[in-house]
C-alpha cells in the first residue's frame, strides 16, 4: 500500500546518495520487496516510473526488483555515474 | 553512454555501484522505536487496535473503560480521517484522550502517534500511564504496514463481517498478537463460523491469542479485561 509515497521516498533517498557520491545520473536501483511488506510490486514499479522523470538525475533510472520473503522494502544497491 | 563506442555496457563507463541496504520503511520504523521507548518512559504498555470501520473498536473501549478506568491509569489515542466523534465518546468516560485526524491518510503512522503521545502527556498530571490504547483508522489493510510503537497489536473482526476475513487479510493477521471476534451476541443472525475464523487465523499466525466479546451485553468481557490487566507485566 502507499506505493507512490514510497516511490517518492526512494527518489529522495537517491538524490541524497547522488550528492554523497558525486553522481549525476542514477543508472540502476536495486530493491528487495518482501511478500509481507504489503506492497503491490507492479504499483510500486508503475509509481516509480511515473515520477522518476521529475529530475534528470533519475529520468532514465531502471528499477530492478528482487522479490524476497519478509516484511521489508530494502534499497540494496544503486549503480550511478 | 560510453564515449568510446557509444554502447551502454557498464564496464565502459564510470558507473559505480554503491551498497546501501537500507529499509525504505525505515523512517516510520525509527519513529516507532522512539515511540515505544517514550511509552515505556511513561510507565505504560501501548495497544494498537486495528479493524475495518464499524467492527466495534470504540464500543469495546467504552465498555473496557467502564470496568478498568478506576483500576489502571489509561490513556486513549483516537485515529480517524475526520471528526472528533470517537474522542468525544471516550471523553465521557473521564480518561485522557487525544483525537488524531489524518485529513485523508487511511492509517495512523508513527510520526502522528508521536504527536499524540505528547498531547496525551499534557492531559495527565504526571504524564504516567499503565495502558495506552491507540484506536487506528478503520481499515483492515493499510494500518498493518505501519508500526506505531505499540507493544501489542490487536485485530478485531465482527460477526457481521464474516469468518473468511482472516484468510482474506493475511498480512494483517501475520503481524497481530491478538485477534478479537466482536459482536458475538449476533452469532445467531449471521453465517459466521467461529471455527473457520479461529482455524484460518491460527494457520496464518500460530501464536495468535484469540478472544471473543459481545461488549454491550458483557459477553467475554472478563477474559478481555484479564488479558489487558496482565499486559503491563509481560
Q: Secondary-structure blueprint of this entry?
A:
The complex is a heterodimer of chains A (81) and B (234).
Chain A: H1 3-21, E1 26-34, H2 41-51, E2 62-68, E3 73-80
Parallel strand pairs in A: 1-2
Antiparallel strand pairs in A: 1-3
Helix pairs in contact in A: 1-2
Chain B: E1 16-23, H1 26-41, E2 45-51, H2 57-68, E3 74-80, H3 85-91, E4 97-101, H4 110-122, E5 131-135, E6 152-158, H5 165-168, H6 170-174, E7 178-182, H7 194-204, E8 209-212, H8 221-230
Parallel strand pairs in B: 2-5, 2-6, 3-4, 3-5, 6-7, 7-8
Salient structural properties:
heterodimer, A: 81 residues, alpha+beta, hypothetical protein PF0899 fold, 30% strand, globular, B: 234 residues, alpha/beta, Rossmann fold, 7-stranded parallel beta sheet, 21% strand
Overall geometry of chain B comes to globular
For this structure, the CATH topology of chain B is Rossmann fold
The SSE string of chain B, one letter per element, is EHEHEHEHEEHHEHEH
> Given the structure, what is the number of helices of chain B?
8
Helix proportion of chain A: 25-40%
